Amino acid sequence: MARTPSSTYETGRHAPPPRVIAVTSGKGGVGKTNIVTNLAYSLARKGKKVLVLDADLNLANVDVLLGLTPKFNLHHVLIGEKRLRDILIKAPGGFQILPASSGIMELADLSEEQKLFFLSEISALGNIIDIMLIDTAAGINNNVIYFTLAAQEKVVVLTPEPTSLTDAYAMIKVLSSLHDVKRFRILVNSARTEKEALAVFRQLTLVSDRFLGSLSLDYLGFIPYDNKLPQAVRSQRLVVDMSPRSTASGKFFDLAEQLIQEEPEPHTDGNIKFFWKGLFNL
Predict the structure, then answer these.
(1) Which has the closest alpha carbon to 136: 171, 110, 109?
(2) Which sign, positive or negative, has the C-alpha torsion 108, 99, 137, 196?
(3) SS3 145
(4) Which of 228-237, 248-257, 272-281 has the lowest mean pLDDT?
(5) Over the chain, what is the mean pLDDT?
(6) What is the pTM (predicted TM-score) of this model?
(7) Which of 114, 149, 157, 223 matches a 20 to 30 Å C-alpha distance to 182?
(8) Assigned CATH for 19-281
């Protein structure tokens, strides 16, 4: 079942626990890291405290995209050399980056005492952030599934290319058929017009409805093709910072506002601490 975004929600309620949003694709080269970092900047500029987890363990490139050089990563926390707050990197616009490196895979081997210590660190961190965005690796390997399943919300990015559509469908198929995930949010990148983006979204929903049955695919929107984006990448800057009046930047700010106005689903695993507990259990 396909749905377009609904209206905004009530204001004045108690602040929800930090949202955890995994951004995945099933295919490399769709601009996933660009989306995560530009969205993080846009959310931060609107007053949200944002943390980006670079979960591409083999080809981590959030820091490269921003021209940053992390000195420490999650591994140093797990072996007790650093506190979690010590390894956070402040990025342009005020959001923070948690460099995961290969240390994340050590979570499976932690003792109960180490897990409790790590969860206390995460719990404290959860009190100072509103949203965590996870930049997963490309493909459908165990690492990608690992992070995507633990996140409260799943955003699948695809482009108008046929191979991107095929791989996005494959990702949805694995998560729905093998792991019973029933809701996905779809973001189309590099579309020339919204008409083209909606056509891509409809193609995906048609094949999903036909072969996967009852799923909820929500159209999150699209980021237009914009020659300012590759220029920003070459300069190791974010397009929303370098060219804030560009077409793509406008869409990133609109998307940030849309997410802010939403009320996340009331899942108990929405909290940062529960996200990491999920990683321990997967």
Answers:
(1) 171
(2) positive
(3) helix
(4) 272-281
(5) 83
(6) 0.86
(7) 223
(8) 3.40.50.300
Contacts of 60 (CB under 8 A, 6+ apart): 54, 99, 100, 101
Of 244, 189, 186, the C-alpha closest to 219 is: 186
Low-confidence winner among 11-25, 53-67, 268-282 (lowest mean pLDDT): 268-282
CA distances 81 to 68, 77, 78, 106, 111, Å, are: 21, 6, 8, 15, 17
pLDDT for 64: 78
pLDDT exceeds cutoff 90 at 38: yes
Task: Report the interhelical angle of 272-281 vs 142-150 (nearest 10°).
Answer: 140
Helix (H) or strand (E) holding 98: strand 96-99
- Assess whether pLDDT exceeds 50 at residue 175: yes
Task: Dump strand ranges (E) for 100-246.
Answer: 131-136, 153-158, 183-191, 216-224
Report d(CA 229, CA 196) in Å as an integer. 19
The DSSP letter of residue 223 is: E
